[in-house]
Amino acid sequence: MGMLNKLPDGVRYPSHKEWQLLKKLPKWLLLGSLVFATPVLYAWWQHGDLLTHDVPRTAMFLGFLFTFWFFIGVLMIGLIVIIIMKGPGYVSDPYYLPKEDKSLENPPKR
Predict the structure, then answer these.
(1) How far is CA 61 from the centre of its chain?
(2) Crossing angle of helices 55-86 and 17-47, rounded to 10°
(3) DSSP structure class, residue 43
(4) CB burial class (10 A; 0-12, 13-18, 19+) of residue 25?
(5) Does the predicted TM-score (pTM) go above 0.85?
(6) Is pLDDT of 84 > 70?
(7) CA 26 – CA 52 distance, rounded (Å)
(8) Residue 46: CA atoms inside 13 Å, Cβ hemisphere, count?
(9) What does 57-92 look like in DSSP terms, one character per residue?
């Protein structure tokens, strides 16, 4: 018996938006990174040193950039989870329940 076997008569759901969004993520990552990194790169180009000129603004845009990257990463993981969940069902080794004790099902009489 194999490690994982597909469930017979398993239901697969059609994929819709998750693949479309997953294919757009690299473009969003590039464009968003450019939007948030442009002020930092401009300041570096004009002044040569980021730590001597307008440090709070540089820190703010770097924070925006890293937050955006985190958001894109979480979105990617969520879309991959949705794609996996919409796929076929698998079963591994069966877990057989122990024998039932019918006396435990009846509550005690008062």
Answers:
(1) 24
(2) 160
(3) H
(4) middle
(5) no
(6) yes
(7) 33
(8) 9
(9) HHHHHHHHHHHHHHHHHHHHHHHHHHHHHHS--EE-
Measured between alpha carbons, how far is 45 from 39 in angstroms, rounded to an integer? Answer: 10
Q: How many CB atoms lie within 10 A of CB 61?
A: 20
What residues does each domain of the chain span?
16-91
Number of Cβ within 10 Å of residue 37's Cβ equals 16
Please tell me which residue, 89 or 86, carries the higher pLDDT value. 86
49: region left, alpha or beta (phi > 0 left; psi from -120 to 50 alpha): beta
- Tell me which residue of 78, 59, 91, 94 sits closest to 21, measured CA to CA: 78
